Each structure stands twice: as structure tokens, then as C-alpha cells.
Amino acid sequence: MKITIIGHWGGFPKVGEATSGYLIEHNDYKLLLECGSGVVSSLQKVIDLGELDAVLISHYHYDHCCDIGPLQYARQIKTQLGEINNTLPIYAPNNEFFNLLKWENYTKGLCFNEKSILKLGPFEISFIKNVHPVESYSIKIICDNKILSFTSDTSYFNELNEFFVDSDILICESSFYANMDGKKAGHLNSKEAGMLAEKSKVKKLILTHLPHFGDLNNLLIQTKEHYKGEVILAEYLLEVYL
Ligand code: ZN
User: Fold this and answer.
1) Number of domains in the chain
2) Could you tell me the distance, in angstroms and rounded to a whole number, from the CA of residue 26 to the centre of ligand 1?
3) CATH code assigned at 223
4) 83 C-alpha to center of ligand 1: Å?
5) CB-neighbour burial class of residue 150 (10 A; exposed 0-12, middle 13-18, buried 19+)
6) pLDDT tens-digit profile of 78-114?
7) Which end of the chain is more exposed for a tag (fewer CB within 10 A), N or C?
8) Could you tell me the CA-to-CA distances from 54 to 17, 90, 113 in Å, in that order?
9) CA–centroid distance, residue 218 to ligand 1 (Å)
10) What's the CA-to-centroid distance between 80 and ligand 1, angstroms?
11) How far, in Å, from the CA of 10 to the mean position of ligand 1?
12) What separation in Å is there between the alpha carbon of 59 and the centre of ligand 1?
């Protein structure tokens, strides 16, 4: 599996970068996990938008989904130019924004819930419902006996430890520093990210959904106080293999 971090900022993108977006590839299959602001522009630094096989959205907050519209127009224009000839499936929760995922025959919406097990190309994907102001899911992707996990947006709850157990990589949000309480907003702080990774025995931790304030290196320092494994900060267009 190859993971490319297309965007990793919480809320809004830094200049020239993007909010949540992760390109997950294996054997030429290309899955876009999250499609936040700036993702459509940034993704084109890595692949052509016509190459995507599927999109998966954890929840309908703008920093995770608002570039779906531009992506739909891109697929329309590429179809009209004769570059592509297939409908892009977009997997997402079934609530009030679900109908927007269908754009003529260019994209279509397919829903999942926490009981779903999706088989997308080489990926087997399962879910647990997060604690967040809107319906949101943590996501586990299994491929070739490797486990890639992703918290999306959530505050801490015990069932996450079991869901993420033995992940090879956990991409974990750290929206706040250790001395800040993220619970009210439905987010994790750096201490909770470390505790979650330690209890789940994950092999490698990538902190993401990063805040626009403070010294981001302190997130690493604070996380390491609670987690003995390898931890790094998400970086724009960083490639990670597992
Ligand atoms: Zn959110």
C-alpha cells in the first residue's frame, strides 16, 4: 500500500495546501480518502483526476468533503473531452448531503454505516461510528495483511482501542495540544492520540488534522510521552509505504 498525504490541515488549508485528503494506492487501484478544501488542486500534483477509482468520505464537514463539487466538474469535463468514460463512486454516510454525491452520470453516491464492510479493489474497509457533532466514522483499511487505520474526526472513546488494534499505521487526528480539551468540539488532543496508539498497539502513528496555532513539534513531544512507537507529523505530499 502506498499512502500520499494530499492534505492534513484542520478547518481550512494553509496557503497552497489542503485540508483532509489521502490517496491510498495498491496495484494501480487509486482510492481517495477524504476530499477537503484544496484537495482537487493538490491531488493533481500526484495523479490525473481521471485516474481515481473511488472516493471515500468519513463525514460531511467541509474540511473533509467540500472539494467533491470541483471533483464532479473535473470528471464531467474529462468525460466530455473523451479522456474518461466511467462513473466515479463516492462512498459516504447516508444523511442530508448524500444526494449531492450524484452528479448526472459522472459521479454516484454509495452509502455505508458502521456495519458495512466495503470491498474496493484490493481494499477491505470497515467502520466504527465516531463521537463528533455530525455522523462521522473511523475507518480501517486491510490490504495484503496490512492494516491502515484513520480516525477522521472524533473525541476519545474506549471502543477505538479495540477497533484500531495492531494497525500497521494509524493516521490520527490531533487537533489540539495536550493541555487543551478537544472533547466539546469532538476532537482529540496530542495526549489522547498517544494514548490511543499505545493502547491499540499500533506500529506507526501519523498525526494529522493539524492546528493552525502553536508549535507543531510540541504535538510530537506530547504524543511521545504516551506512546512508545514511531510517530511523525503529516506533511504535504508525504509518501508513506506499508
Ligand atoms: Zn469534522
Assistant:
1) 1
2) 27
3) 3.60.15.10
4) 34
5) buried
6) 999 999 999 999 999 999 899 999 999 999 999 999 9
7) C
8) 22, 6, 17
9) 23
10) 34
11) 9
12) 7
